[in-house]
Amino acid sequence: MLSDDEKTKLANRLRRISGQVSAVQRMIDEDEYCVDILMQIAAASGALGKVGQLIFESHVHSCVKNAMVDGNTKERDEKLAELVELFRKYARID
Amino acid sequence: MLSDDEKTKLANRLRRISGQVSAVQRMIDEDEYCVDILMQIAAASGALGKVGQLIFESHVHSCVKNAMVDGNTKERDEKLAELVELFRKYARID
Amino acid sequence: MLSDDEKTKLANRLRRISGQVSAVQRMIDEDEYCVDILMQIAAASGALGKVGQLIFESHVHSCVKNAMVDGNTKERDEKLAELVELFRKYARID
Amino acid sequence: MLSDDEKTKLANRLRRISGQVSAVQRMIDEDEYCVDILMQIAAASGALGKVGQLIFESHVHSCVKNAMVDGNTKERDEKLAELVELFRKYARID
Fold first, then answer.
1. What is residue D70's predicted lDDT score, i.e. its pLDDT?
2. Hey, what's the signal peptide range on this chain (chains A, B, C, D) (predicted)?
3. Superfamily of domain covering D4-90
4. How many CB atoms lie within 10 A of CB D51?
5. Nearest CA of chain C to the CA of D74: how many Å?
């Protein structure tokens, strides 16, 4: 569960990312230089990764922690399997 | 320079990415499960990478190619230096 | 803790990776084509990522799990903080 | 083509990477802590990426440049297609 403070911060970041995606669209429409568009895309992608990192952090320190402390074996194992899956996804392995 | 056909395809992809970013925002607002949000972020990030790949491809086969064929030494060297910079940025080295 | 079976599998993978790194060195010495060398490097890098994924998996299902079940608050929090750090490192964010 | 100076520098880096891969093997054998092993793997992986970056740079400023200046259309197109493929591989898209 994300706190209200975390939500506000994430909303700000996501608003900025939306703006970056719109900027990419506009740059394409206006035939701006490809390399500048690619740099804008890299910026949006980095910002999105940062949002992922923040949510992962919050996830670990709330959901995972709670499942570990209070959950039953099944809930715990589920959380651990999800961590493995997230790692695979985000480390972009295979 | 992107062709009209490429622009249309990219616009479709970017519209979908905007939708994914909005979905992330909505999922956060509605307290959806962090792991689902993280999977949505990974999807948006992958889609953004694909847009980058397409623009890079077009860039290489138009701007870089033209600079190589018609450009002077300075223009050529600029294009090559940009390729190195893009590679560094996208391969996320250091 | 890695099981003997996991250790054998990882040793095989690491032997292969050592071979790939040696191959890169040999290819450089023999002036092989840069693009072939770069593909060999990408292969070694992917193989190394896979070893990381396997160790992470084992880590989560043994060390993290045990700390969650048997550990005290301090041990648990340590494991969780390490997960966040590993995620940041492997997702190559910032 | 890599210069002798570049080759020496790359050889040093590759020797260090071989050492890091051996260290991973030794750490596994000696049951060292998984997180430390994972950090060592991340270091080796980062070092390998840096070698890739250096070879890419040299490739662009020699092979690609030469093909652009002196090559025929077929050679040029080959180089450009390879750049696209390398970008896809290293940016780990799809």
1. 82
2. none
3. Metal-sensitive repressor, helix protomer (1.20.58.1000)
4. 24
5. 17
Which is nearest to C45 in space by CA: D41, A34, D9, D31? D41
pLDDT tens string B35-49: 999 999 999 999 999
Q: Kindly state the average pLDDT of the residues D19-27.
A: 98
Q: How far is D1 from chain C (nearest CA, A)?
A: 7
Q: What is the pLDDT of residues D40-62, one digit of tens each?
A: 999 999 999 999 999 999 999 99
Chain B positions touching A25 (Cβ under 8 A) are: 11, 14
Residue in D68, D87, D92 closest to B76 by CB: D68
Measured CA to CA, the distance from residue A71 to residue C7 in angstroms comes to 31
CA distances for C43 relative to A45, B31, B44, B81, C52, angstroms: 24, 40, 26, 25, 14
- In Å, how far is A47's CA from the nearest CA of chain C? 9
Q: How much is the ipTM here?
A: 0.91
| For chain D, domain boundaries | 4-90
SS3 D81: helix
Contacts of B8 (CB under 8 A, 6+ apart): none
- What's the average model confidence in pLDDT over A57-61? 94
Which residues of D fall within a CB distance of 8 Å from C31? 1-2
Q: pLDDT by residue (tens digit) across C42-92?
A: 999 999 999 999 999 999 999 898 888 888 889 899 999 999 999 999 987
> CA C85, C87, C92, D2: dihedral to nearest 10 degrees?
90
